[in-house]
Amino acid sequence: MYRIPNTNINFFIEKFNEIIEPLKSSFEVIILGDFNINLFNDDINKNLFEICLQSNYLIPTILGATRIATKTLNNGQIVSSKTLIDNAIIKFNMKHSSGLIDSFISDHFPIYISLPEIIINKMNTEKVIQYRQVTDITKGNFQLAIKRTQFNLSQNEAADRVFSGFHNTFNELYSTHFPIKEKTLNHKDEIKPWIDDTLKNRMKIRDNLYKLAFKKKISHKIFKDFKNLLTDQTRKAKAKYFENEFNKNSHNIKKTWSIINDVIRPKKSKQDISLLDDNGSDVQDSKVSVQFVDYFTSIADNLTAQLPNSPIHASDYLRNRNPNTFVFLQANSKDVETVINDLKDNGIGINKISNSVLKYTCNEISPLIAQLINVCIQQGYFPNELKTGCITPIYKNGNKNTVSNYRPVCSLSPFSKIIEKVVYNKMTNFIDKYKILSKEQFGFRKIWEQTLPSPTTLILYYLA
């Protein structure tokens, strides 16, 4: 509970009684707060507050000063004032032990209360995360390892063997230079990730200096100067952290807004969702993935079954066929570099190759991937290793317990995206060169210089 300083005491007492009255007869009452009523003073605020507590069978358990303020006078003398404004208030007959913690967390001393008769289930706020340490140093070491490694990319070998050899060697090097590590996080690490071990150690020094200054073993100015310096360093660390986050995700507008929302909006607690089957029964956790797979893999067959039969063959729609033949010219390193540099940031998850690593080693891997593409195209082969992806169900709308209200999003290997995009670019260049697609076709195409046609133009075109 918090009372704003210098507000109307009678209004506070009235609201306090409104809250406590329905609770005191049926529940144990424990109130922790900064009441901004100094119990060391003999004034009307203290008297009214004590009468209020007594009438509700409540007592304060903290009896020492909870805030000590210091100031320097014009003559250089340092004076301090002690107030008792924070407290833990309980019913008068509850067994307890309470006190103050001598620590400089804020200008108020932390207070504690132990109630042996009250049992609270302890919640484990710590969680263990796995991560890969992707930094400029580790990326540089990986780049050097790629340069030193001999890859067998002979066009005389079977394409599946050539790609598997490259893929396995690349993954081994990746795992060696970006190994999976574990870290235990608590809620403080998640809330303030810019607080590193160096700042934590300096905070301990600050707390020790405060104790020494409080006991007058050192000058108060020494503590104050160090505290101000640490505050400035913490603010700079916070600013640097967000600057790095924004720079790292400068090409990912979704992630950028996620960072902004984490700062300006409170985090919502995640709710557990129980999936229901067709009969309305709960699906066991071990079978949730099966439920989603069964639904997602049946969508295409269900939609196909609903299509009406048509007497018109698909070839009947192909008019004015182009006489030119598309020939896949061999890919070169420049083709691959262009695609790699256009890859969006995909994070640094433990089960995927980071696009930032591919961009960092672009000069080294582009010739290798170009040779792989040429071997695969020449032999009409697409690697089996790239046909597997991680599918994530994304909620659309409606009941969250129903699988049909989710859509699948598949995360593919960046190598799959690179091969696909190189082939796509060569095909679209051919299509655009010979104007195979209508100029009124805008979907899934690059933005053209001409302006969008008006609805009337489109109608007349399709009626012609």
UniProtKB/TrEMBL annotation:
Gene3D superfamilies: Endonuclease/exonuclease/phosphatase. InterPro entries: Endo/exonu/phosph_ase_sf. This is Reverse transcriptase domain-containing protein. It comes from the Eukaryota.
